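hiii so um. not sure if this is the right channel but i have a protein structure encoded as tokens and i wanna go backwards to a sequence. like what aa goes where. can anyone help
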């Protein structure tokens, strides 16, 4: 069974972007739902749970919990506003003010009234929800659409600025011959390209039933300690059916690998910034990737969504102010000290963290746009 047997409809560019934004919004909303579930589990009142931002289009209030559920105009995420979070002061200041007023005695549904362990669990529940969502998506992809099997000669994701893209090859094309000789397997095609570093290759590929002939020259790349030729694309695999047990094993292994790889990339940014920074992608880059993967069917798109969900979870665990990881760090500090961190000291950390976060976001977005316009990034 091949992935291409389960293709998405032929979507326009604008529609593909909309599909990506909806998918990203769902992932963010499920992240916030993780906070919501743990908050309610620990007796914390959730004042508002919203899907999207901006003006409220639809609102209803739960008579049991008093939570306002909102559907907002901009479907770009969501939020979970708990009692005890004013959104204006930092974590330590909210905690100090709460304790100073004796709130712990009479306000037991307040987030700040809960133990450090409960507050820590609520804060990290969002990223954990993202990892669970990724597992479910990967299980569905494997069980419904199959597992990657043999490599084919169909062109998958491409690298900007490499010979294949410059020669006119596009994702979805199928390479059928090299140097006038027919190639029928992906292994054969990859072997020829790897062995042809710096040597021109005459390729024939088919797009929409129409053959095209081009010449490309593989460039050098190091793989497994050896120098090989590459032209800049990943071949698409064929897919085979998988049972429930194998699908569970696949999903668990892939989530673990994705988490480890994401943390590894973040670590490499610190130790090898120059060679790693160019791999970063912001929302613009993710939208481009999403548009490409949508052409390869639901299985591939679910796997992409799983990868983005893992990235969202890991990113939110970073010890940066305004992120879950930043809040968790101050709660851990409170556990160790037996009292909240001094609000003024936390404020200084917030200012520095925000500056770094904004700088990285601006740089990555500029890199994405430069790669989109000029075909190469700036990192």
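sure thing!! here u go:
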């Amino acid at each position: 069974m091949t992935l291409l047997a389960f293709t998405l409809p032929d979507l326009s560019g604008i529609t593909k972007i909309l599909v990506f934004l909806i998918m990203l919004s769902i992932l963010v909303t499920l992240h916030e739902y993780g906070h919501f579930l743990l908050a309610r589990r620990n007796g914390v009142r959730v004042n508002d749970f919203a899907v999207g931002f901006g003006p409220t289009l639809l609102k209803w209030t739960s008579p049991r919990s008093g939570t306002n559920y909102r559907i907002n105009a901009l479907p770009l995420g969501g939020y979970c506003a708990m009692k005890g979070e004013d959104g204006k002061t930092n974590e330590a200041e909210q905690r100090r003010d709460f304790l100073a007023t004796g709130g712990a005695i009479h306000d037991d549904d307040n987030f700040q009234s809960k133990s450090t362990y409960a507050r820590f669990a609520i804060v990290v529940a969002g990223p954990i929800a993202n990892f669970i969502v990724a597992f479910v998506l990967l299980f569905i992809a494997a069980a419904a659409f199959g597992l990657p099997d043999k490599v084919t000669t169909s062109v998958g994701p491409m690298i900007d600025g490499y010979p294949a893209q410059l020669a006119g090859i596009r994702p979805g094309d199928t390479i059928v011959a090299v140097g006038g000789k027919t190639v029928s397997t992906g292994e054969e095609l990859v072997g020829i390209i790897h062995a042809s570093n710096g040597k021109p290759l005459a390729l024939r590929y088919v797009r929409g039933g129409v053959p095209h002939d081009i010449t490309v020259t593989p460039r050098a790349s190091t793989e497994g300690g050896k120098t090989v030729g590459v032209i800049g694309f990943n071949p698409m695999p064929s897919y085979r059916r998988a049972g429930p047990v194998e699908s569970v094993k696949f999903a668990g292994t892939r989530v673990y690998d994705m988490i480890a790889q994401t943390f590894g990339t973040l670590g490499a940014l610190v130790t090898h910034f120059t060679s790693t920074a160019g791999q970063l992608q912001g929302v613009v880059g993710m939208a481009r990737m999403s548009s490409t993967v949508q052409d390869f069917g639901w299985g591939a798109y679910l796997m992409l969504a799983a990868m983005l969900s893992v990235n969202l979870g890991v990113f939110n665990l970073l010890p940066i102010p305004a992120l879950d990881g930043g809040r968790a760090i101050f709660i851990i500090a409170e556990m160790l000290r037996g009292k909240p961190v001094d609000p003024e000291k936390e404020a200084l950390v917030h200012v520095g963290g925000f500056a770094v976060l904004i700088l990285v976001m601006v740089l990555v977005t500029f890199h994405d746009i430069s790669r989109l316009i000029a075909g190469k990034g700036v990192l």
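oh and The domain at 150-240 is CATH 2.30.42.10 (Pdz3 Domain).
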